[in-house]
Design brief:
Oligomer: single chain
Radius of gyration: 21 Å
Strand content: 15-25%
Number of domains: 2
Shape: globular
Order of helices and strands: EHEHEHHEHEEHEHEEHHHEEHH
Largest sheet: 11 strands, mixed
CATH superfamily of the largest domain: Isopropylmalate Dehydrogenase
Distance between the termini: 41 Å
Number of strands: 11
Number of helices: 12
Length: 340
């Protein structure tokens, strides 16, 4: 019998919460009966959305009316105290009452509160928000997606190590190929920080990964590299642009295929291919980023996703815990640092 996975859930973060959070939990539990959810937030509001599809034995509600607002600065969010749903959920992981924590709330506050409660992996200065993106060949690890707006060359080199370690943990038979997201592929392009990072990575003996130089935004999905490194500002803009483009394409395709009788007939004849195409571009199916660099797993769900997206981020949680991913990342980072 598989071990029960305990997930601490901040039920009050993100748009349309706690409804989408609870709906996401119900949807996730249908295929993950060995999961127990510690749900933090306003008990009365949470119970309004729980139905018989979620067994009473599979969850507990830890009541608090205090929340971190989406409009809070990171420090304002932390200063709201230790009784917010976000803080209590993170504290649950710190105290080993749960295996992993997830929130769709304020990204900056989640980072600050996590750093106040949890330890960093040795030799790493800052955690980075990392996620998987699809490419033409398989998947790419992309970081940072918004945790650190300003980064030093040391931070970007750390992100290269952490991203490579994550990729190797997920795909042990493949070689990690790192590139820095930049405005051009030429060596002299970019600001001083990214150029200094390029020089240092080029000079290092990166046995843990292959450094492939720069990558431009229009090459992210080509699959030539599988670890893409950026500061949090650049990475977040790239993420939101990719999501918006995917939504635009699927929306326009839907209009084209349902706008007239010929389009409707064509869509019926190609329904299987269209479903595959839509699924490939659906950002909800790639929802769930990890703050890599922390010694305990913290997952960030997109605040604007729906219950399907949140359910997928819960699936990320179960994969991380069942695969003992944090321990593998820690070991791979240690190996990379020893090599370099």
């Amino acid at each position: 019998m598989s071990k029960t996975i305990k997930i601490a859930v901040d039920a009050m973060g993100g748009d349309n919460s706690p409804k989408k959070i609870i709906d996401g939990i119900i949807h996730h539990h249908k295929g993950n009966a060995n999961t127990f959810y510690q749900i933090f937030g306003d008990k009365e509001k949470i119970q309004d959305h729980i139905n018989n599809d979620l067994p009473r034995s599979s969850f507990e509600i830890i009541h608090t009316k205090d929340i971190v607002k989406g409009t809070d600065s990171p420090l304002e969010g932390a200063k709201r105290g230790k009784s917010t749903s976000m803080w209590l959920a993170i504290q649950s992981v710190k105290e080993k009452k749960s295996d992993i924590v997830i929130s769709a709330g304020n990204t900056g506050a989640l980072l600050v509160i996590s750093k106040l409660n949890l330890k960093m992996i040795e030799n790493i200065d800052k955690p980075a928000l990392s996620a998987l993106w699809p490419n033409k060949i398989n998947m790419s690890v992309v970081l940072d997606l918004g945790a650190n707006i300003e980064c030093s060359p040391k931070n970007l080199i750390d992100f290269s190590l952490m991203g490579s370690a994550l990729f190797k943990s997920l795909y042990p038979d493949d070689t990690a190929k790192v590139a820095l997201l930049n405005i051009g592929s030429e060596e002299l392009k970019g600001n001083e920080i990214i150029k200094e990072t390029y020089q240092q990575l080029n000079q290092k003996n990166n046995t843990g990964f292959k450094f492939k130089g720069y990558i431009e935004g229009n090459q992210l999905m080509n699959g030539d590299v599988n670890v893409i490194v950026a500061d949090g500002f650049t990475g977040n803009v790239a993420l939101k642009t990719a999501e918006g483009t995917a939504n635009f394409i699927t929306g326009e395709l839907k209009k084209a295929m349902t706008g007239n009788i010929i389009g409707k007939i064509s869509s019926l004849l190609n329904i299987s291919n269209l479903k595959t195409f839509k699924k490939r571009l659906d950002p909800r199916l790639y929802n769930g980023a990890i703050f890599i660099g922390l010694d305990s797993p913290v997952i960030k769900s997109h605040g604007g996703t729906d219950y399907i997206g949140f359910s997928n981020s819960l699936s990320v949680c179960t994969r991380i815990v069942s695969g003992n991913l944090i321990e593998k990342i820690r070991n791979n980072i240690s190996e990379c640092i020893e090599i370099t």
